Amino acid sequence: MATIQEIAPAPAVGAYAARTAVVVTSSQRSAFDVFKDYASIARPDHWFKNVFMLVGVLLAVFYHPELLSLGVAFTLLIAVAATCLIASSNYTINEILDAPSDVSHPSKNSRPIPSGRVWVPAAYLQWFVLGAVGLWLASLVNAPFFWSGAFLLVMGLVYNVPPVRSKEIAYIDVLSESVNNPIRLLLGWFAVTSTEVPPVSLLAAYWMIGAFFMGAKRLAEYRFIADCARAAAYRSSFRHYNENKLIVSLFFYVTSFALFLGVFIIRYHLELILIFPLVAGFICYYVAVTLRPDSAAQKPEKLYRVKGLMGYLIVCVIAFFGLMFAHIPALYEFFNVQPSPVNPLWKI
Fold first, then answer.
1. Is 100 exposed, middle or buried (CB count within 10 Å of its CB: 0-12, 13-18, 19+)?
2. Whether 168 and 205 share a structural domain
3. In sequence order, what are the residues at sequence separation of 6 or more whose Cβ sits closer than 8 angstroms to the Cβ of residue 231?
């Protein structure tokens, strides 16, 4: 069977230019339809990904329960709003710069920009305004939160904008996108406290599990397109991938996640070792979902429809935070591990 390396990508720029030569005017559509198209490229349906902030929030409260108050709840609302706007700014620039290649995708070719329903200069203005307002809101929280928000915005540029455009580089595309996971953990953390940083081993584990999810998305997309030339035209990194390489990369990401999580558990809270069977089961379940035809893993924002997977995830989250507050001395005796006398948090 031919691989992507053997087939040159089909040009998509001409098709994109042809499809967007005439932008559908506002007079041909209702104001609501126009608004819906511009809102669509900001992808508010992807805001659910900011649930990854929750781990940072809960960990900060775990280490500093005295900080929990109504004032913190109000700050959290501002923090979530800032993160959503910054993320939408990144999604907007992604939609703008991906439009020429989206023409080659079986379903993304109907998005507002490649189909000519959005005026590109207005889309650039939307990108700038969303980022600026998001950073302004972030500055109202505290300095570490602002810089974490700025980091999220910069990574969106690194991922999407030439000459770097890391999304076009095999493996770097996955790693540069999934770094948003630990950034979101930091955003949740700094929404509560600004004087310390959570354990680095946990941040690294968060990065690697994010890479696993992103790698699974790539694999599901590759299998869905099922055409080497069209896949390469849609995403340049697919010239260097094939199904076997993507599957092997998942092993690397999930092994790295397990090792970093193991460091965190042994170093700081051994009770969490009891969650490993649940975590391993969830990983296997996610791989099974990824390998389904037209898998929901292609669009993580739609995974809530996989009710079994979501139910399993809820069980894992409850078990994680339940064990965070548990103390089981017998475990330390069984594994011959001494509780760490060191504060796990780095001071700022």
1. buried
2. no
3. 4, 221, 222, 225, 238
